[in-house]
Every structure is written in structure tokens, then in C-alpha cells.
Amino acid sequence: MKLIDPIVQFHAELQKIRRDIHAHPELSYEEERTADVVAQKLTEWGIPVVRGLGVTGVVGIIKNGDSARAIGLRADMDALPMPELNTFAHASKHEGKMHACGHDGHTAMLLGAAHYLAQHRNFDGTVYVIFQPAEEGGRGAERMIQDGLFEKYPMDAVFGMHNWPGIKAGHFGVTPGPQMASSNEFHVTIKGRGSHAAQPHKAIDPVMTAVQIAQGWQTIVSRNANPNDPAVVSITQIHTGSATNVIPDEAVMIGTVRTFSTGVLDMIERRMQEIAEHTAAAYDATVDFAFKRNYPPLINHEKETAFAVEVLTEQFGAAYVDARTEPTMGAEDFAFMLQHKPGCYVFLGNGDGGHRDHGHGLGPCNLHNPSYDFNDDLLPIGATYWVRLAEKFLQAK
Prior knowledge:
By secondary structure, this protein is of the alpha/beta class.
């Protein structure tokens, strides 16, 4: 593993930045302090800064030479609305808010790369360092695009990275094509007619109708989807009833659908609605069917993925790079950027949690877990990857 020495020497400062951000988590579109920290550091290092794209987004512009080529490097800044169980010194100071997904580390790694690139500028073209808000359900990437990110700052490709617990610390995982799933949710209300539970013949039972719909939905993936194109339909909430002797008027089912392709998603949404409406009709009930598409599948581009793998292998060695990592049904709004620009998204192993300071929670070091903490040993690794990726992409002719 060949780390860039000046970045290694800057490790302590990056850790300080990361832990400060961790201690002051901010939710989607509220990342004012975090954006201030990012903008202040970039300005201090002589990097022009643009603010306001995506409400709280920050873009740093690092130019050298006269080439028109440009690359975008993206990190996310927002935290999650959840409590933190850790009690170490840099634990969250804001109750009910926590950096439980490592966006603090992502921000610090990209700042480390920006610091080095601004000092050395061993490239010909422009590096845009993109600090994005509202990844956690807020569609911050889409908002930045709508605000003109790619029109105002044209770039030939855009790249992203996320720490990944369970992969060995410092190892990378990536795959061409689908790497993360689409994220979608449904909210279905079955309307019947209530009655005394001892007189079910006077009711139109929404509970049993919901049960039949739920059973029918479970056949969609097994009988309508190609087994080679994975999908998940999960009912995560059923709300109905108020007493043991009352058949209620309605039942509500809520859940999520995950797919790696839009075609399969189209089919699942259509079949879910058909099954719900026809099953309800068979029981004399009616249905209000709502289906919301949150994030599209994250699909890595073949050429840019091969390029990223080449950079990773050259810098860290083939033993540290899994170029056919297993895709995950988790979702990421970097997918929006990959719909507009070619690029690649990689996982950087966060380890198994052994890195955590004394005072960590008793839970596992998994994403979105109240005992999670980013592995600071990754800071120079991620920053080195960003630098070598940008330098090779924009290498002088």
C-alpha cells in the first residue's frame, strides 16, 4: 500500500476535522456548520469556493494548466436523526443526531485530497471537490444537479466513495454495473367496513384483505421477476385495529422495494397495484395505493470502473482490491449523479469495529447503528485514492 507521504503527515489534522464534524452532526439541508468548516478549510488552502448548490452544498475548484478536462470527486456531509450510544470524547453533542454512516469521514478524506491537490497541482485540468448535503433520504445529489452543478461546472466524469463495515479496513470493493439498489416505498390503505368481531358477516374485513394482499405480493419476486435480476419486496409495517372485539374499517401496509434495474422496478410497482386492487375487489374492499420512488439504482459505468480499479491496483495492490464485490440492496443518491455523468462509486473497508475508542457503545460498528464510528486509519487511504484518481484522470499529455 503506497500512501502519499504529505497526506500521511496531515493525518492528525484530518482526524481533528473528522472528529469535530462527528461531534457536531447536522441533518439533511441543515449542514450549515459543516459547510462552514469545509468552506473555511478550502479557502484557507487557496481553493475558490462556491456555496449554495443544493441549499448547503459546497464546491471547491482546483485548477492547473490549460486543459478543459475536469473530474468531480464527491463526499456527503449530513448525519442521521438517531441517538448515539458512544461516550468517547468526540461523541455527538446534539441529542438525537449522529454521524452513524461515516459522512464525517467522507468529508474529511475529500478535504485531505483537496489540501494535497491545492499544494502540488500535479495535473492538467480542473478538479471539482463536491461536498453534498442531504444524502440520507433528502436527494441532495439531485438537488445540486437541479441547481446547475453539471452545467455551471462541466466535468467529464464524477466519482464517489463510501466506507463499508465488514470489508477489511483499507481494502476496496467495487463492481461494474449495479452496485447499490433503488430505494422505494409504498403506503397502501385497505378500506373495508367495520363491525363487531362477533358479527363478521356484517363487515368487509380489511385485516384479512391485507393478509391476502401481502401473500400475493410475495409471489411477485418469485414468479414475475427474472431470478437473475434480484429484487426485494418487504412489508415493514401493518397498522390496523384498536380492540379485540372490533373489526376495523381500514388497514395500512407500509414497506420498501429494492431493485437493481428500473425495468424490474416498473414491473413490481405495476404488479403490486394490480394484486392490491383486484384482491381488495374480491373481498368487496377498496384500496388507496401510493408508491414513491426515492433513489434510482446506483449503476457504475464500465469504463470509469475499470479506470478506478486500475488506479486502486496501482496504488494499493491487487490484494486490496475486490473488482467484483457483491452489490448491496442499500441505496445511495450518488446514483443521480451517475445518471447524468459517467463515473464510479467504490466501497472502502471500515473494518469490524476494533478501531473504536474506549467508550464506544456495545452494539456492532455497522452503518446506521448507534455504536458506529468511522475508522480514522482510513483518512490517508481515502485521500490518497482521490488524489491519484484525479492526477491520473487529468495527467499532463
